[in-house]
Amino acid sequence: MVRTDPYTPSEGIYECIDCGHRPSESGRCPSCGGELKNISVPRE
Ligand SMILES: [Zn+2]
Fold it and tell me: 2 CA to middle of ligand 1, Å?
């Protein structure tokens, strides 16, 4: 495993667009039930 990026994909590649919670599974936010957005896609 190479760790050159501070971002760790293994810990929550999804982010709740409502509360910012980062579960590791897709679907609904376990915290508030909001929609999850995949944040594993690198932004430029
Ligand atoms: Zn949420």
Answer: 30
pLDDT tens digits, residue range 9-40?
Answer: 555 589 999 999 998 888 899 999 999 998 87
For the full predicted model, state whether its pTM sits above 0.85: no
Kindly state whether residue 22 falls inside one of the protein's structural domains.
Answer: yes
Q: Domain limits at 14?
A: 10-44
- Distance from Cα 1 to the centre of ligand 1, integer Å: 30
Burial of 14 from C-beta contacts in 10 A (0-12 / 13-18 / 19+): buried
Distance 38 CA to ligand 1 centre (A): 13
